[in-house]
Specification:
404 residues; Aspartate Aminotransferase, domain 1; alpha/beta; Aspartate Aminotransferase, domain 2; 4-stranded antiparallel β-sheet
């Protein structure tokens, strides 16, 4: 038999179970006729959310200008709109030259780490994390060091743990706020502590803020770049979540802070951006309208708004359960639910997720998929309407009842 073609060694530390074996198994079940409620991905369009009409119209009206390649950094109106948003948030010294438009934040994470890292460089990443960050560090020759954001601390970063992890190889720190998967929103004191460590050690700050306006109750989103003066900060955001436009594949990355230190870094990003020619052009024409127009997300996250009510339904159902607990998510569109300790050692998150899929036809993401040292959590998106969520939790309760 011919020898199998083996994958690259760089993939050995790459995990993305959100769209991994369980998701593939769910697709196979759907082909066999089963109806699966898929809660593994935060994809607003699948749950009836629409992109604002003004954004769709902006794309249509500019299709004639969207046929050629654009500048590798993106079209000027989109980049300038991002600059205006940053200035309105109190982030100064940024021009369109420091803004990169990409095929979603995912591409820009990869490009920025490729431009930044040398083999063996270390990057501090939260645990739990959005696993793309850990995967992208590994794919680009870096080493991930996870800092603790424990459930007992409300999933807030442990500043002392971050300080202990910094060494001569540490190059950057990733901050995901509002957080995916936990829904934690970091207060100013926490962010000040992270920035203090970053500035003392001249670490690059990588601020993933794709859920920036998606906060609930009295939670306050603080743009990390407003606190970074003596280091380099990269802010990542885009149209996917706040503007419910995942399929447009439009994200942006903004350099700010001590930009004199970032000249080579920016040139590296320019080179990598040029190699892929440019990002999706039609979607870029929606950016100016999105950032400058009515912010409909505010109605969705207020009491009575659909995102708020769905989140509350999850909190209520978990609160009424004998088998689960959850730290109320204060931002984003997920809940990171904990299984009762009675299941420890005999029914972990992977076994639970597989049982729930095969026997109850609900797909969730096991908590260990988010690079946790524990296996007693699972993540669901809070995007479905309350009726669907009640059906989901009826099935979860039934599943757990059988194993209790």
């Amino acid at each position: 038999m011919d020898q199998q073609i083996r994958t690259s060694e760089t993939l050995k530390d790459v995990r993305y179970e959100i769209r991994g074996q369980l998701a593939n198994h769910a697709l196979e079940m759907e082909r066999r006729g089963y109806e699966i409620i898929s809660l593994n991905i935060g994809n607003p369009g699948l749950f009836g959310f629409r992109t604002p009409e003004t954004m769709r119209l902006a794309m249509i009206e500019n299709l004639g200008q969207a046929e050629p390649y654009c500048h590798q950094k993106g079209i000027f109106p989109a980049r300038e709109a991002v600059v205006m948003q940053q200035q309105n948030r109190g982030i100064h010294g940024v021009s369109a030259d420091e803004v990169f438009i990409g095929n979603g934040v995912s591409e820009l994470i990869d490009l920025s780490l490729r431009a930044l890292l040398n083999p063996g460089d270390e990057v501090l990443v939260p645990s739990p994390d959005y696993p793309l960050w850990s995967a992208a560090v590994a794919l680009n020759g870096g080493t991930v060091r996870h800092y603790a954001c424990s459930v007992d601390n409300g999933f807030m970063p442990d500043i002392a743990d971050i300080g202990r992890l910094v060494n001569s190889k540490t190059k950057a720190i990733v901050v995901i706020n509002p957080n995916n998967p936990s829904g934690a929103v970091y207060d100013r004191n926490i962010l000040d502590g992270i920035v203090d460590i970053a500035q003392r050690h001249k670490l690059v700050v990588l601020a993933d803020e794709i859920y920036d306006q998606m906060v609930y109750d009295d939670a306050e989103f603080v743009p990390l770049a407003t606190l970074v003066d003596n280091s380099v900060c990269l802010t990542f955001s885009g149209l996917s979540k706040i503007y419910r436009a995942c399929g447009y594949r439009v994200g942006w990355c903004v350099f700010s802070g001590e930009l004199e230190l970032a000249e080579e870094f920016i040139h590296g990003m320019e080179l990598l951006s040029a190699l892929r020619l440019c990002s999706n052009v039609p979607g870029q024409w929606a950016v100016q309208t999105a950032l400058g127009g009515f912010q409909s997300i505010r109605d969705l996250v207020q009491p009575g708004g659909r995102l708020y009510q769905s989140r509350q339904a999850v909190i209520d159902r978990v609160g009424a359960s004998r088998f689960m607990s959850v730290h109320a998510p204060m931002g984003a569109m997920y809940a990171f639910v904990r299984l009762d300790p009675r299941f420890d050692g005999r029914f972990d998150d992977q076994a639970f997720a597989l049982d729930l899929l095969e026997n109850h036809h609900v797909l969730v993401a096991p908590g260990s998929s988010f690079n946790t040292p524990y296996s007693d959590h699972f993540r669901i998106t809070t995007l479905p309407d309350t009726e669907t969520l009640n059906i989901v939790f009826d099935r979860i309760e039934s599943c757990l009842e059988q194993h209790a």
